[in-house]
Amino acid sequence: MPPTLLHKVLLNGYTLRQLTERRTRLSLATVRYRFRQALGRFVSRPGPQKIPRGPLVLLADGLWFQFARKPWVLYLTALKSCSGHSAFFLDPLLFPGKEGATRWEQVVAAIPAHAQARIRALVVDNLRGMHLLAKRRRWVLQLCHFHLILKLQVHRRGPRRALKGGTVREEIYRLIRNALELPEGPRLNRVIGRLERLAQTDCGTRRMQAVVREFLYCIGHYRAYQAHPTLGLPTTTNTVESMGGIIRDLLRRSRAASSPRSLFLWTTALIRLRPEITCNGKTINRIN
Prior knowledge:
Shape: elongated
């Protein structure tokens, strides 16, 4: 089957101007009109969403945009089988305002009921309200390691280490990386004990003290993949963020998303055309 206009633009990377130049019989205005019509028809139909079988893991992340100097968030969700190695994206939802727990409740409510009933775990960044969302549904909560490590790397390398508490921050970084990976046992207990002692100081800076205390409070959620090995939990939201990167690349190349409606149409169509991304669970280190 030859690629459609939507495939050529959304998957193959052509711009409408490039397609016009290849088909000289049509004007750019005509190609744009045909694309808008095809896009509207495609998105108006029910989404052919593929939902894996068996128990599921929900991965979620928000993508921020701005229209008329006001924030909008595109809410991205994907479902992964606990025994599978791919995540399948659902249609995105777009809401005005900042990202928040109330909106995430609406996003979860929009997931088909038969799929909701099979969700066993939620993988997200450490966002306010997500703990309660998972608790209400009795889902295991796995917090993203990548965002935590990114936060720890601030002022960690180069000349910035000369700032106050550089040596302590370096130790905290190593300890938390170990606490994320080590299996249960004496080594892990020693690492946690050292972090607890450091949390009683200013850890070099009060900001780092807050990071350490927050990590210790949430450590069970960062280590959920260790406690629930049968769920096949990934320890990052990289799969969803990869889709976010694909979306931003498309919008930058096509100069689309001039309005919330345009953003919703383009991203929904893109996700429907390429809903699957590889997503592996974290390999568990059993050596103590």
